[in-house]
Design brief:
Elements (H helix, E strand, L loop, with lengths): L7 H23 L4 H19 L1 H10 L5 H51 L11 H9 L3
């Protein structure tokens, strides 16, 4: 297909896909994504670009897979990719919630130990649960 023969919708889609491709490469290089996820998104971007440049190629692949139309194949693949993406986000959020819970428990135990140690030494515990020297350090530290 001649690049000059692209319709405006294909041009807009290709620009968006190119931006996503560049963002995926940058994220992969900077380590913002894992290698597997980065390469999956690169493949998705490249396949989307091929489907936009050569729309008939999806029909050929769809017929080879026993699906009637290329648009149906693209739709089915999009559903699978979106479901997989939502599942990955759900798993990551569950893991983050678990890690936050563990962190909060650890901090609560440390504060309880500090208060217990302060009571044993006869020092009054500060109202916020931390010791007075830590609060003084926090007030002096600009960060």
């Amino acid at each position: 297909m001649n690049v000059l023969a692209l319709n405006p919708f294909q041009t807009i889609l290709l620009v968006c896909i190119a931006a996503l491709l560049v963002a995926s490469v940058v994220a992969l290089i900077r380590g913002w994504t894992g290698r597997r996820e980065g390469f999956v998104w690169l493949a998705v971007c490249l396949l989307a670009g091929v489907a936009v440049l050569w729309p008939d190629s999806t029909s050929v692949v769809a017929r080879a897979l026993g699906i009637g139309r290329g648009a149906d194949l693209v739709f089915y693949c999009a559903i699978v990719v979106l479901l997989f993406g939502v599942w990955m986000v759900y798993v990551r959020l569950r893991r983050l919630r678990h890690e936050i819970t563990l962190l909060v428990r650890h901090i609560a135990l440390l504060e309880a130990e500090r208060e217990s140690a302060a009571r044993e030494q006869g020092q009054p515990a500060s109202p916020s649960g931390g010791d007075a020297s830590a609060e003084a350090d926090d007030e002096q530290d600009p960060t």
